[in-house]
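Private note to self, pasted from the team thread so I don't lose it. Backbone tokens:
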């Protein structure tokens, strides 16, 4: 009777060990993929930074003009800027 109980306990422990081994292998597989994922993440971040920088290069800044001074019609305001061809060049 005691040996049957011990064998049941051993079988239960064996199942738990098998389950833990399976989980450990899964974790090890995920850990093995981390360097590849980190490299991909670095590459994607570099691409995002490059795209953001390129996007900023297209921005035009005007100094000395008050915000919202142009009103709703930029074409009517452009002669005040004294920049001939400002809107025709675009």
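Design output:
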């Amino acid at each position: 009777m005691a040996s049957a109980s011990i064998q049941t306990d051993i079988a239960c422990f064996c199942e738990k060990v098998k389950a833990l081994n399976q989980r450990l292998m899964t974790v090890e597989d995920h850990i093995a993929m981390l360097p590849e994922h980190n490299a991909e993440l670095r590459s994607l971040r570099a691409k995002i930074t490059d795209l953001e920088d390129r996007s900023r290069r297209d921005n035009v800044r005007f100094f000395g003009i008050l915000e919202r001074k142009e009103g709703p019609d930029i074409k009517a305001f452009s002669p005040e800027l004294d920049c001939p061809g400002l809107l025709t060049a675009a």
